[in-house]
Specification:
The chain contains no helices and 20 strands. With 275 residues, it is mostly beta strands.
């Protein structure tokens, strides 16, 4: 399932005409105006599936595919408290994320800066109004790499990583380091012919491969199968097998999505899409 972000656009950029970095309509087809999505947790009673509402989402798109508003809903469908806001620049980059709690109090806020190619340069993270961390991305265009440095609000070290990219600027490798520059972990990524990231290879601080995760996608680029294998000195452990099954409308957007783990349905999401 293409993740549907919980957003509300706080500032309408009416004069924007070049939104080339926007994932319009969150990747959905047919320019939908509104979607109401309900996710159910599946419990089994006497081997029969019992659906229990876990959460509901309702969100609206503007004519350019930006999220216009997204009220938080209670399980019964009534409007809950608080909201989420996303603010975009004129090229479609998300430049601010704000999550409100009760009485319009800001719980979480992230601010973003980009270069002219739409690549992230800086992220500032806030919690309850106080800055918690600053992350900076320094790109080496020739070698297609980025050094990622995260620091706490007092300037102390938090994280250090090197990200590598292919010719299309898809990330292919992520190496994490400690404060002394020693490798903590490494992950390699591979893509299928349609550009879906389908393979993850996890390495230890000693570059020992210890886990592989694989996902298979259908013709609509939705995942239909996922599992992993973990290696150790004694055993090879196969992870849970998760299957995803969909029902699509005439525009090839999913109106029902099932998550099935080891043969049992655990989640069902139904989408009411209005065009």
């Amino acid at each position: 399932m293409k993740k549907i972000l919980l957003l509300i656009l706080a500032l309408m950029l009416i004069k924007c005409s070049n939104l080339k970095y926007l994932d319009a309509y969150n990747g959905l087809k047919g320019k939908p105006k509104m979607i109401e999505s309900t996710t159910y947790k599946i419990n089994f009673i006497d081997s029969l599936e019992n659906e229990i509402v876990a959460f509901k989402i309702m969100f609206h798109f503007d004519s350019k595919g930006r999220i216009l508003k997204c009220p938080h809903l209670n399980k019964d469908g009534t409007i809950g408290y608080g909201e989420t806001k996303y603010i975009y620049d004129k090229k479609g980059n998300m430049i601010e994320y704000i999550r409100y709690g009760k009485d319009s109090f800001v719980n979480i806020q992230n601010k973003y800066e980009y270069n002219k190619y739409g690549k992230l340069l800086k992220r500032e993270s806030y919690f309850n109004g106080n800055i918690k961390a600053i992350t900076k991305y320094n790109y080496d265009i020739n070698n297609r790499e980025a050094r990622i440095i995260m620091r706490n609000s007092d300037g102390s070290f938090r994280d250090n990583a090197l990200e590598k990219y292919d010719r299309n600027w898809n990330d292919t490798e992520l190496i994490s380091y400690d404060s002394l520059g020693n490798q903590k972990s490494r992950i390699e990524f591979e893509y299928d012919k349609r550009g879906n990231k389908y393979l993850y290879k996890y390495y230890s601080s000693k570059n020992e491969l210890y886990k592989i995760s694989k996902t298979i996608f259908n013709e609509y680029n939705d995942p239909i199968w996922a599992s992993s294998i973990q290696f150790s000195s004694k055993d090879t452990i196969k992870g849970k097998v998760t299957e995803f099954k969909y029902l699509y409308d005439t525009k090839n957007n999913p109106i029902e999505e099932k998550s099935i783990v080891n043969g049992k349905t655990v989640w069902i999401t139904r989408n009411n899409i209005m065009y």
